């Protein structure tokens, strides 16, 4: 049962169900594709207008890329300040022909709203905005202090968020960060994530001869770059699935007792998972627990391998160059630059003729302890909004720029996904269930309420 | 100095230098592209007319594919019969824009004739035809018996030659086979080859999930087909360059003393070879002699490896399928089916989830002993035509269907390449030097003369 302060806010949210949905639909009609610089300026301006009207002190902060929207309400002295992060840019909608309804004509079917960006991330940060608005409409004030940070470049890898946060630490001074992004757990249960894996990407390129040659006339004397790369890769990860690059695991922090308890509680329908992807087996090593792999282990994924002939029939060519693209997912407390240095040293040792190419600096992992101060109020907020305890996931599987909060601002950071697990983000027919949107607004409202029960620390 | 019988034939060839060249040019103007079935029927008919007019008993023998041209002169009882093999089909001329002069408009530049098929193989078998014609014009007869077999499907892998030879063993009964095809040794010296490597091709295909997935959300639990193939390949050939498939070397015949002596005599400009291909090193193993690798060792070449993302930048995808294409060059006395069985057993043992795909039956290796009966007359023919001893190459590097002579007809088979080493066969600007064409006719004439000095065996 909601407290006296929260109940009328929930009532307001319920009473405005269709109005809020209409406003979300209107918001989704505006494309804001960062990769193609389509609609970014328009949606940035629209947000400034919307947030100012709600009663937040709002500014559009220019960067060398797309601008940041920063909105604040800080009239609750002695109460914690929560930094709510989201992003107003969306993925390109290609392939268009796979969409049942056009990506920027939001359409409701079977209790879901279909549109590009509805789950990732407009529907989620709009729920946060409506939660703020509902508190202000009902009570004329917020229970705690809020800084809302919406970036416009998340879908192109957040290249400027770290620099922006580093340069604006005073402006963004907060006690915790909360990101509503990504899907809930596959079981459908509400979810809190305490971290995200980092990532680095690199290419391995090998070229021997100056041109392709005939495998009969030259096979045995001319070296083959595909073999060179195969043998190099085989030294980087063994058949048992263990990464064998020297020092790569040096900084891996083992899971805490709370972490292990949390993943043991996570629902797991392994047969359903395998069936859904048509898998006959999981990746090696066979004996490692499912969630342990996703939360606490770095991975070395070959994203692509291309060289020589790939068409029908046979072509007895000995190719002269080949390219491998890889990524490594990092766990706390691996450092992207340190890991890249170790991979580079490994390549130089085992195959100095292979070119090691890095184009991006990568993203740091992030981890907040389950035993941190704001876990309990977050859990209470979920219980208030959903009527059930959220699942606790110690480390998100994919990568989010949460490290800017944990490592640059030095505050705990939580991810509270509002979207359904099958939101199809980055894919055609992206969607969010109407229930998820509604419960997202409630969760956002409950979160502000619960934080308002605390005193600012220190 | 040529013998009394051969000298007037050489004179005739010299006197007709420009006439013969013009006739070659006329022949080359007719495309005969087996892969596209262009001009095959026309050139087949043209050959029948030409060979009949010269005085050979000629027929166009239909097959389920392109017809065989068989022409014979067998009026020298007690003398050996030589089966002269060649092919009247040519490679497609693509890419057309890389040709300095159009492929079917033969053009002379700097002492070379440029046209598709001039080296591979029209210029070479036409030299054999002119050698026969010259003997007949000068002496009214040939010094030995001749069967000329010209196929029209060599450039699409000679799919019917074995069946044809097997079904026509009486028709093709001969004492030796001689093929004028391919380039001379890179040093420019005249060359006799005593064998050719065989070849088998196969694909390795691996598919795990039913779709690509995100490396962050699924990395660690969903298996990666590229890793599966990398680890499988690493069990098939080690970093030292040794093929490690069980039993693969079982049937490899070690080189004879004559073989080793022959390769030790072959000129080798290793620095020039590496420079020409921009190579920093030869293929492993570093200590194996250059010609030993090309003549006596099987090879396992990865022709292509394709899976996942290969474009610019990064894409953190965990791909769901990948394909590897390979060929194995076989040496005497490896059998294609036996080798494919061994590779299949290896794949089934090490990676049963990888699909092993074979579309073609492959080609057997072929080897004739250097110490065989016709080596001496062939060497004398080269000395007569060129004024220098030919190089003896125990086994050709690439694959030719010579096994149909050695293994089906059971006769020794020799390859006497007439084309310059830089003939650019299968490539734009295919060419043959005018000198090579002329010395080819002389070699063909001298060969018939030398064989005429022998009695038919048995």
Automatic annotation (TrEMBL), chains A, B:
Domain of life: Bacteria
Family matches, as InterPro entries: Cyt/Met_Dipeptidase, Peptidase_M20, Peptidase_M20_dimer
Single annotated GO MF: peptidase activity
Annotated keywords: Hydrolase, Metal-binding, Protease
Record GO biological process: proteolysis
Matches recorded under SUPFAM superfamilies: Zn-dependent exopeptidases
Domain Peptidase M20 dimerisation: from-to ranges: 195-354
Record-linked PANTHER family: BETA-ALA-HIS DIPEPTIDASE (PTHR43270), DI- AND TRIPEPTIDASE DUG2-RELATED (PTHR43270:SF8)
Name recorded for this polypeptide: Acetylornithine deacetylase/Succinyl-diaminopimelate desuccinylase
Lineage, top ranks: Bacteria, Pseudomonadati, Pseudomonadota, Alphaproteobacteria, Hyphomicrobiales
């Amino acid at each position: 049962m909601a407290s006296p302060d929260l109940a009328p806010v929930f009532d307001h949210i319920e009473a405005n169900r269709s109005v809020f949905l209409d406003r979300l639909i209107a918001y989704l009609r505006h494309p804001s594709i960062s990769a193609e610089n389509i609609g970014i300026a328009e949606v940035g301006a629209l947000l400034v207008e919307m947030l100012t009207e709600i009663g937040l002190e709002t500014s559009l902060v220019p960067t060398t890329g797309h601008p940041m929207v920063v909105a604040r309400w800080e009239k609750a002295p002695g109460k914690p300040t929560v930094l709510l992060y989201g992003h107003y840019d969306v993925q390109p909608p290609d392939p268009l022909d796979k969409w049942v309804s056009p990506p920027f004509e939001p359409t409701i079917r079977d209790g879901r709203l279909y549109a590009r960006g509805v789950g990732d991330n407009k529907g989620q940060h709009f729920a946060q905005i409506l939660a703020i608005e509902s508190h202000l409409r009902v009570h004329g004030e917020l229970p705690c202090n809020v800084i809302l940070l919406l970036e416009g470049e998340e879908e192109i890898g957040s290249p400027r968020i770290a620099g922006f946060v580093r340069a604006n630490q005073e402006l963004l001074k907060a006690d915790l960060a909360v990101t509503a992004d990504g899907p809930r757990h596959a079981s459908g249960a509400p979810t809190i994530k305490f971290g995200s894996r980092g990532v680095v990407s690199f290419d391995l390129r090998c070229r021997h001869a100056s041109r392709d040659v005939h495998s009969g006339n030259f096979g045995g004397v001319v070296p083959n770059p595909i073999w060179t790369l195969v043998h190099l890769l085989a030294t980087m990860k063994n058949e048992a699935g263990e990464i064998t690059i020297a020092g790569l695991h040096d900084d891996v922090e083992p899971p805490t007792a709370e972490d292990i308890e949390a993943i043991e509680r996570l629902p797991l329908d392994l047969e359903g998972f395998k069936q859904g992807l048509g898998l006959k087996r999981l990746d090696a090593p066979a004996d490692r627990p499912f969630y342990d792999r996703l939360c606490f282990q770095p991975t070395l994924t070959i994203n692509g391998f291309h060289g020589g002939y790939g068409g029908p029939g046979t072509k007895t060519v000995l190719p002269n160059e080949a390219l491998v693209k890889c990524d490594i997912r990092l766990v706390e407390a691996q450092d992207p630059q340190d890991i890249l240095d170790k991979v580079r040293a490994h390549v130089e040792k085992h195959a100095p003729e292979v070119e090691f190419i890095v184009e991006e600096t990568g993203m740091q992992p992030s981890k907040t302890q389950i035993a941190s101060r704001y876990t309990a109020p977050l859990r209470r907020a979920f219980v208030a909004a959903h009527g059930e305890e959220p699942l606790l996931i110690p480390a998100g599987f994919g990568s989010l720029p949460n490290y800017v909060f944990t490592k640059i601002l030095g505050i705990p950071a939580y991810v509270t996904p509002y979207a359904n697990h099958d939101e199809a983000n980055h894919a055609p027919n992206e969607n969010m269930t109407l229930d998820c949107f509604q419960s997202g607004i409630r969760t956002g409202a409950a979160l502000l309420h619960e934080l308002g029960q605390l005193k600012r620390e220190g």
